[in-house]
Amino acid sequence: MHNETGLNPTLSQLISETSRQKTVYKPVFFNLLDTVQKSAFEHLISTKNNLHVYDHIYSQVEELIKCLQPTIVFLPPIELEKAVKNHFGEKSVEEYGVWVYYPWAEKLVHLLDEQEFAIVRTNRNKYKITTQEQAILAQKKIGVMGLSVGQSVSLTLAMERGFGELRIADFDELDLSNINRIRTGVYNLKIQKTVIVAREIAEIDPYLNVVCFDDGITEENIDRFLTENGKLDLLIDECDSFDIKINSRIKAKALGIPVLMEGSDRGTIDIERFDLEPERPVLHGMVQHLDMTKYKELTTLDERTPYITAVTGVETLSPRMKASAVEIMATISTWPQLASAVTYGGGVTADLSRKILLGNLNVSGRFFLDLDELIADPEKISDQKTTAANLSPLSIENIEEFIKANRLAFDEHTQQLPEEILNQLIVAAGKAPSGGNNQPWRWHYQNGLLHLFLEQSVAQAYLDPQYISSYISIGAAIENLLLKAAHLNLAVNWNLTPQFAPNHLAWFSFTPNYQPSEQEISLAKQIDLRHTNRKITPRQEINQADLSHLSNLVEQIPNAKLQWVTDPEMIKNIGAIATQTDLLRMFIPEAHEDFITKEMRWDLDEVQATEDGIGIHTLDLSNNDSIGIRLLKDKKMINFLQQMNGGSGFKRLTMMQFMSSSAIGLITMPKGEINSFIEGGRAAEKLWLATTEMQLQIHPVNVPIIFFYKNTIEDSLTIPLEQKAQLTLAEQNFNRLFSLSIEQPIFMFRIFKAAPSPERTIRKSLSKTFSIGRA
After folding, report:
1. Which CATH architecture has domain 544-752?
2. What is the 3-state secondary structure (H, E, C) of 231-242?
3. Which fold would CATH assign to domain 16-293+335-374?
4. Where is pLDDT greater, at 314 or 116?
5. Structural domain boundaries of the chain?
6. In the chain, what is the straight-line distance between the N-terminal and C-terminal CA atoms, in Å?
7. Are 117 and 140 in contact (CB under 8 A)?
């Protein structure tokens, strides 16, 4: 017969009886010399059928005698027997000491009284801890917030008898996944963590005073936790709640209570001696810029990320923790912790706690006890050598020598432009987009001609095979120059010079009194407004007439074609291809090195110093994704991500960008010519300026195209054959999605509706990209 829950009635009853003990953590003491307690003791042993009794009082007294008279171990055994007998005196063995009943375990244990118990229990602490120090510690009050690492800390403190009172706080119950780091049995599942720790301490030492705060730390109980029954002598923070971390420190600082925290990852230790430094900023000043009163109002992980990272740090995380951060909410749901690190941290924290309480350690700060750094194999020196030559920037002498040597290739022109007009033209050209914002153009004006060179010293990126990316950028710059010239009423005579590539790429001459078209004027006005926008916004449809208008505009460039993909399922497939190549970019060492050193600029100072690259502040990223990008700087993390077939966080970002797009566009040109890439760049810029005027946003996504070029045309990828095969298959799928056969993909982009990005990439000073030669 079964009840409504489907359980056997007997089993159901047993479960119910067991659950009544869920909250019990205080043992019961019986002193048999007290008649009332003796009566209760006898009732217990006569009514409890499953009681387990442990009586080893004689051996405990033997140990006590050895502690009090260490030299007795060198005397005949009979002397120890006499000493034990004398110690019991007239008391019966049964009445000596106390009996301790653990109701949750149905165990009854015969123990020495507290004073004698403490002597024996701490005997092997000597003289790591002296008797005087043990007495001092017995008067101390410690509070522990959070009982994952906190459990290990609490039990270690208990084993050393490092406190007189321990206050422990945690609101949570034990889940099965917690047992990877919390040392306990599976029978404790769904028991309050405070109860588990209090029980374990009682089973180690029933005389220790443990006070449980089962609701965790709250605004309502924090003052009680810190001050009730006397102010804490030390606060140990191992909680997960970042507002509690900060607010508890603010209160501890006001009360002059030192704070100790162990961060598990890399053995991170924080010590804040508010007792010795009352003006010390909370958490070493790392959170001073944050308004913690707003934290509770924040509902998403992204909103809370600035607060979390201010406490944990980003650059100082271990490679595996960084990799885990990338995977959070993708392949894992929370931060990982290991039993080894938690146990290690518990020991370290208990050790530091003792030293702080005894006045043997007065330092404050953040410290790392990183075993991976302290004990590690020597780093292997890579045999790979860079093949790219470090080219010097073009000098005026280089340029003028080239022009002189090839003067017959250029038209003669006597019309001279004022320097002010030239500057306007070059500034407009310089606002063109370029791969990694490397700005690979070098302009020189001499004898009435404006010459355009490829600045090869900045055009050697891994994702610039045979300079194709730079040529596209050059094309965009040319389009800006032509539009700006038209807007200034200048007619332009110009020619590409592919015969001199990759050095000299084009020359231009100018004559006045040109009457620009309305299209030229309208597009020229967008040069200052055009920018890359990487935002993720709700997907909105774009009018088909607008897409057709953009297609017609692109096709004004001879042989240029523009294809659109608007079907969400096809966009998803293209996004999947992009995620594959984005990860490849991270996992190929040379590509990764380029990304973190040549392309990205990690702070504003670096942006201003180089005047190129992509500032991280311009990426339109959420707080989470901004942190994720910063984590990419760690090569060890990248290596580990590759080993674990990870990177799901980055895949998520790319897929979210694609799926928020109104359409994916692809500009193609005929294959096999340098001019195709330059003219394709012109078409891309013409389109981009038009979309800016239409208040639409563009985000280039050219990484797949470049990898396909490296794999199929340049055939330069040094990756495993399996990866090459996967990339070849991805290219075949890409060609199928866009119905490509003989066309060369030039420029792929996402187009969408959103507000303009508030940030812009920097541009180089004119002195770096433009010079005027001698007549």
Report:
1. 3-Layer(aba) Sandwich (3.40)
2. CCCEEEECCCCH
3. Rossmann fold (3.40.50)
4. 116
5. 16-293+335-374, 411-527+765-772, 544-752
6. 108
7. no
